[in-house]
Each structure stands twice: as structure tokens, then as C-alpha cells.
Amino acid sequence: MNTVFVTVGTTSFDDLIEGITCPETVQVLKARGYERLVLQAGRGSILPAADSCPHVRLEAYRFKDSIAEDIRQADLVISHAGAGSCLEALGAGKPLLVVVNDKLMNNHQLEMARQLHKDSHLLYCTCSTLTETLRTMDLSVLQPFLPGQPKNFANFLDKAFGVQ
Questions:
Q1: Cβ neighbours around 89 below 10 Å, total
Q2: DSSP for 93-132?
Q3: Three-state DSSP string of 74-100
Q4: Phi, psi torsion values for 9, nearest 5 degrees
Q5: CA gyration radius for the chain?
Q6: How many Å separate Cα 146 from the centre of its chain?
Q7: Domain coordinates of the chain in residue numbers?
Q8: Which fold has domain 3-160?
Q9: pLDDT band at residue 163, thresholds of 50, 70 and 90?
Q10: What are phi and psi of 61, to 5 degrees?
Q11: Which segments cross the bilayer (predicted)?
């Protein structure tokens, strides 16, 4: 069963949870062959019920000790732009769509997402462009982010944040 896993980490990102479960977005996911949607909703005020998304099998929870198994089972990971969540998905070799929270001030997440996108490791969008991005995305352009190289990741973060 083709699965999309959505994670917001430990944050509150209700706009992402609302966006991914809206009927139009669910229809796009279904049209792309995804049948199961697993949501890690974090501290947000929204925790969708299992029957709230017709046409896909929905599972939602707030937190787990580890999301590694959900990532492993996913055919697509959609994540907030937190470095830990991105690194975990990329390290697992999963196609990654990062949704940047454009409501945050001094948004370092955007710089990180832009750089990883420029290097062809992920796709990124905002909540307002999520549905269209899912409709038009081409996951075949993504290149693996080689895990186990913390120095490279540290250098990447320095580059993304303009520290050199």
C-alpha cells in the first residue's frame, strides 16, 4: 500500500496538517497512487480522525518514541523543515517534500530547504503551494543525500546559514 508519512516533529504546524488532509490534496494523493496517509501531528491543536479523509487510509498520532519505522514504511515523506526531521528522512533514502512554515520569523528553515533543493536532495513548498506541488512533483530528479557524513552536513548547514 503506497504510503505518505507526514511529520511536524515536536512543533505545532496545524496549517500543514489541515493542508494535507483537505479534500483536494487527498484527491491529488489518491490520483498519484497513494492509498495510506500517516500523520505525526506534534503539539498542534488538530488530530484528524481516521474517517476524516475518504479515499485514503488515515492514521494520526501526536508523538512516538521514534518515527524511524514510519519513515521506513513510507513511499514519500512530507516534513516540516526541521533539520532533524529532514536529516532522518534523507538518511533513510526516502523521497522528501519539505513544507516550509512561512509564518515563522527569521525563517532559517527556508534557507536549509532551498539549499537541499538546489543540491537535488528534496523538493520544497509552503502550505499554500502544497497541493499544486504534489500534483506536479517529479521525484525522479532527487539525488541521495549520503548518510554518515556529519562533517558534510555541518558544512552544509554553515553554507545554508551563511557562516563560513
A1: 26
A2: T--EEEEE-TTSSS-HHHHHHHHHHHTTS-EEEEGGGHHH
A3: CCEEEEECCHHHHHHHHHCCCCEEEEE
A4: 65, -140
A5: 15
A6: 18
A7: 3-160
A8: Rossmann fold (3.40.50)
A9: low
A10: -150, 165
A11: none
